From TrEMBL:
This is Ribonuclease G. InterPro entries: NA-bd_OB-fold (IPR012340), RNA-bd_AU-1/RNase_E/G (IPR019307), RNase_E/G (IPR004659), S1_domain (IPR003029). Its cofactor is Mg(2+). One of its GO terms (biological process) is rRNA processing. Transmembrane segments: none annotated. It comes from Priestia aryabhattai (Bacillus aryabhattai). The lineage of its organism: Bacteria, Bacillati, Bacillota, Bacilli, Bacillales. The keyword Magnesium applies.
Length: 487
């Protein structure tokens, strides 16, 4: 059974799609950021970039939005046959006020991506005031598909556009015409609202997180929905009367009940084990995601070539799932187990392409490099699960590493050696317990005390920000008092 599990009873909203209890999709509401996809703004152009055929627009957020020339209404409606050769100033200028909609959240240092081709969505259709085309879902069979397209062409006024979704098949023509009139009036009100409005300003909020993600889950072909919020349950029960909607009443967290908490935690781990005993290591960096494939415990029953190919094929399948679950985007490099035979690399690449064709996010397989690394790109549509749920470590500054105990011990030795000529008879060092053990091993501390002719006091510290801290130089009596007081 394929189901949508909704955790909406608490502050942070979460939606998961499961198939026979296995997690297939996960959508998390990012509490640290406002959900702005679909929001419509009255923005002000602050900078035009002719060489990039784009512009930055102030929409009132911490970072300016970015819009490409092709997303401008003025460009789309231009009848000039040579408009591609025209300068950006022909379509937009600094200081101009424009109506824009957010199509992609800002990620990292990049601001949100904008479009001037505004759209209004409903379950059955998308209305585009400046779309200038009519399209019908390919899931609707002919001749019904052609009939809906003809209706759209008849109803279209001027530069309007319609995108008829699969759900329209269950609607009557009268109901569809009524919905189109509603959306047309909504846009007219929005235009009137911007008259005399000071930019930048939010004009209209898009669909909220739960609404958009439930619609995304429905497109996965789910059999039912389980939700832990009664008000949302009633709303869903009314809206999707043809679907099984269940209200979860248990005391246990709904995600814990369906074993989703454990599965989400696994998405934060670097290592993913394969059924054969092999494993893949996933490392996210700011520039790209790097994946390493290893045979691990898998030795295979046949020849080495077959073992390597089997592990790589299994790794490709698992990675296609992990990219979707972890929301990985941008450049992805996969270091498969070495395949000397070209036909094996071709088979893995072909299989990876087939898997990525089933991904709702556009993915492009570039191919193998001379070093045998498979290159691919996956469109960034949201922050990864890792960046959403975690933050860089303040101790290691995100490297995942810290000074080891032996290195820290040598650093302490060098610092103490610098004070060998000081008059004080004792030195107090605060460091990690593992470093203290390293200092005391094999008589290292005793030998150091004899060389510098000072008593060295080592006390444990819970502060892992620094490998060690020199607390004090002084007499034995002074430091003994300080050490006793700190314990």
């Amino acid at each position: 059974m394929k189901a949508c599990i909704i955790n909406a009873a608490t502050s942070s909203k979460r939606i998961a799609v499961i198939n026979d209890k296995a997690l297939e999709k996960i959508y998390l509401e990012e509490q640290s950021e406002n959900q702005i996809i679909g929001d419509i703004y009255w923005g002000k152009v602050v900078k035009v970039l002719p060489h990039m055929q784009a512009a930055f627009i102030d929409i009132g957020l911490s970072m300016n939005g970015f819009i490409h020339r092709n997303e401008l209404v003025s460009y789309q409606q231009s009848e000039n046959p040579h408009k591609d050769q025209q300068p950006m100033s022909a379509f937009i200028r600094e200081g101009e006020k424009v109506l824009v909609q957010v199509v992609k959240e800002g990620i990292g240092t990049k601001g949100p991506k904008l479009t001037g081709i505004i759209e209004f969505s409903s379950d059955e259709l998308v209305y585009l005031p400046h779309g200038n085309y009519v399209a019908v879902s390919k899931k609707i069979a002919e001749p019904k598909r052609q009939q809906w397209k003809q209706l759209g062409e008849r109803l279209k006024q001027g530069m309007e556009g319609f995108l008829f979704r699969t759900a329209i098949a269950e609607k009557s023509e009268a109901a569809v015409q009524h919905k189109i009139k509603e959306l047309q009036k909504k846009y007219e009100r929005l235009e009137r609202q911007t008259q005399g409005m000071k930019a930048p300003a939010l004009v209209s909020k898009g669909q909220d997180f739960l609404e958009t993600r439930v619609q995304a889950a429905l497109q996965q072909g789910i059999d039912g929905i389980v939700v832990d919020d009664f008000d949302l349950y009633q709303h869903l029960h009314t809206t999707y009367s043809n679907l099984s909607i269940e209200y979860y009443k248990g005391n246990e967290n709904i995600f814990s009940f369906y074993d989703l908490e454990r599965q989400i935690e696994k998405l934060l781990k670097r290592i993913v084990w394969l059924k054969s005993g092999g494993y893949i290591v996933i490392d996210e960096t700011e520039a790209m995601t790097v994946v390493d494939v290893n045979t691990g415990k898998f030795s295979g029953k046949d020849n080495i070539r077959k073992t390597m190919l089997q592990t790589n094929m299994e790794a490709a399948y698992e990675l296609s799932k992990q990219m979707q679950l972890r929301h990985l985007g941008g450049m992805i490099l996969i270091d498969f187990i070495n395949m000397p035979h070209k036909e094996d690399r071709t088979e893995v690449e072909r299989y990876m392409k087939k898997l990525c064709e089933q991904d709702e996010v556009r993915t492009n397989i570039v191919g193998f490099t001379e070093l045998g690394i498979l290159q691919l790109t996956r469109k960034k549509v949201r922050n990864s699960i890792g960046s959403t749920l975690t933050m860089p470590c303040e101790v290691c500054e995100g490297t995942g590493k810290m000074i080891d105990s032996k290195t820290a011990a040598f650093q302490i030795e060098r610092v103490i050696w610098e004070h060998r000529g000081a008059e004080e008879e004792a030195i107090w060092i605060e460091t990690r317990s593992d470093v203290i053990n390293e200092m005391k091993a094999q008589g290292f501390l005793n030998a150091l005390e004899k060389m510098v002719k000072k008593t060295i006091y080592l006390t444990p510290s819970d502060d892992y920000t620094n490998a060690f801290v020199l607390r004090q130089l002084g007499s034995n009596e002074q430091i003994q008092k300080r050490v006793s007081a700190s314990i």
